[in-house]
């Protein structure tokens, strides 16, 4: 469906070119749930991309985005719309391009790739604030400095508009209380041109850690590896043997597979040290039945700890197995 967020509701169309919507969901008095796990258990593997809107009449409407950043962008704007209605304010953002009058010549996707260029792009740093270390991120004023110096914009005010567009479309993510508060608020520009406002690229491997222990040095070592693959998989728990969706980030040299809460938590829930591990597909379950359609695979670490994971398709399972095998041979 083609979905349009209005001041007081959400319209959805069968096609983008349609003139009349198929329906409309009022936002006044509605509540939003994200991610929506009960939907995932019944219908959809990728429930971490699903959010639910419940109207005042207790009608549930489920939406699934294509990826995590897109879901977060929709959830952020819908919450902002509901908040504006409750406070008697006007929420005018129907689309990024229309709301800030973004020139049609601006290609946000191409600009994002230029910003990520390892030589000429924005430098990712490890920044410290409030006894926390934010890894693989950068400040708001650095983004505006880069846009101006690369002649992508004419001045800082225009740079603020473009940076807000990148943030709204999920090309940039807020890190830390200051930048997150700006995004959740109702200000005209959710992006801050400020050295104390932190941001990161969604696929950069960003993580935040407390700077209060000697263990930080050991923890940092795990995250120094280059990211070679990331995505969501089902993981079986060791104690209860239940299955939960986790976001996995695979790094090599050192070879680690970190897994996170897919709702967007900054800190990993755990890590699998891959050096010397064995990874194979699992063709039968505990009952001895064939389970090829379940796309299961197993990682056995050098310490003989077993991890059972499930991919969304046979192709994805094969890709993960090959990537983990490469990391386990090359990483330390």
UniProtKB/TrEMBL annotation:
All copies of domain DEP, residue ranges: 118-203
UniProt-listed Pfam families: DEP, PH
Domain PH: from-to ranges: 1-83, 226-329
Record's GO cellular component terms: plasma membrane
Gene3D superfamilies to which the protein is assigned, alphabetical: Pleckstrin-homology domain (PH domain)/Phosphotyrosine-binding domain (PTB), Winged helix-like DNA-binding domain superfamily/Winged helix DNA-binding domain
Alphabetically ordered keywords of this record: Acetylation, Phosphoprotein, Repeat
Protein name: Pleckstrin
CDD domains in UniProt: DEP_PLEK1, PH2_Pleckstrin_2
Highest taxon of the lineage: Eukaryota
One of the GO biological process terms: actin cytoskeleton organization
Species of origin: Macaca fascicularis
